[in-house]
Design goal:
single chain; 88 residues; mainly beta; six-stranded antiparallel beta sheet; 6 strands; 0% helix
Length: 88
Amino acid sequence: PESEEWEYELIPTFGAAWHFTHAVSLGVEYYGKAKFEHGEMEYFASYVGPALSVAGRSFFWTLAAQPRVDSTDEAPQVQVRSLFGVLF
């Protein structure tokens, strides 16, 4: 039988923010990404950057721009993340 090869990612994250009002906050986020193939780690990339979050009564939206802060050549130099949520 053929052996199955697993590919997976580990993504540790951390963030802290200051709420200026109930609806607006500004913070900083850390986003890490470890990629594993064939049982070995291919790379680990670290990103750190500012994040802005806006909330309404029934939604929230977060936008973060994070440059890479390590020396790996395997991952993008910058990532932009956006998250939109609807509350119900």
